[in-house]
Specification:
single chain; about 375 residues; alpha/beta; eight-stranded mixed β-sheet; two-stranded antiparallel sheet; globular
Length: about 375
Amino acid sequence: MVSCGGEDRVIALGAGGAALIVWLVLVFARHGFWLTRERDTNKLPLPPKTWPAVTAIVPARDEATVIGQSITSLIAQDYPGPFQILLVDDNSTDGTADLARAAAGGSPRLAILSGQPLAAGWTGKLWAVSQGIGVAGDGPDYLWLTDADIAHAPDTLRTLVTRAAGDNRVLVSLMARLRCESPAERALIPAFVWFFQMLYPFGAVNAQSGVGAAAGGCMLASRAALENAGGIAAVRAALIDDCAFGALMKRQGRVWLGLTDRSVSIRRYDSWSSVAAMIARSAYAQLHYSPLLLAGTLAGLALIYVVPPLLALGGQGYARALGAAGWGLMALAFQPMLRFYRRSPLWGLALPLIAGFYAACTFASAWAHWRGRGGMWKGRAQAALGA
């Protein structure tokens, strides 16, 4: 039990009150990030009278386990306008290109480009995307930037173009439904999307002004607007490339970002370590590689996620009430995302433990960066590019 000395009571009350204030701000003054209201199923504008030309750019490096399903879903798009798929094989060693070609079944929609070795100053994914955009040239009106581990419903492209063209958006992006089957995924993946929404509230992203962001697995961008923004080279070293891209495009016009369960990630994170590696890859980049921001973030996480349950379970009087209120608010705010992923509402009470795991991954991300191995992905340490 928390000590009942007078000074300790004051500290407990101060910490509990500060944590509760933070949660009140997050829940009631953060664009309702936690409500999961921004969905691809929201009302769409009228479809365009003439469907614009679209080229899908798919960067792929050693994606043999997922590329077949991804390409099959792209080939199956029922889009009524001109549509081409350009797979950029980023120096794969596992037969990715051959498997993609087989999945396409001879469809004329698919073309495969053998990527050039990684250029200095670029992250691997963006270098591959850049090559694909260069080959696409001036032909498409829109570029569909989609990852090799995403499988789409047949009407996904039609929906994206309808929203972009009918609502005058230079960028439309979908946060694909992440796989949530293994024990590690069930415990940690809903929080991954929830934390993303906390950092980049979709309501603010979709407003006329405010933060710019996107979800890299599925982004439909106006080619003309991207050219006006300086092209993909403008974010060539960004480790968190989707949010950098979203901010870049928002300077050109309106953008839209929403949740979907019709585009799904098929990448498996079967172990706790694989989820940790996914989180740690870019966590320190989010903090701009700043030790000061790292220390502040870890202290802030302790205040808002650790203090409330400690006080609720071991505090006394008003301190216990403050802790219980803070813990209750965080559990409440997690419920819509848990419903989206069809998880038990009791996971809301476990959010402090989940946040502790994310805090440890954030420190691990910084530690890897300090050792020169930050941003590790497919054998490339890329975090130093954004330092």
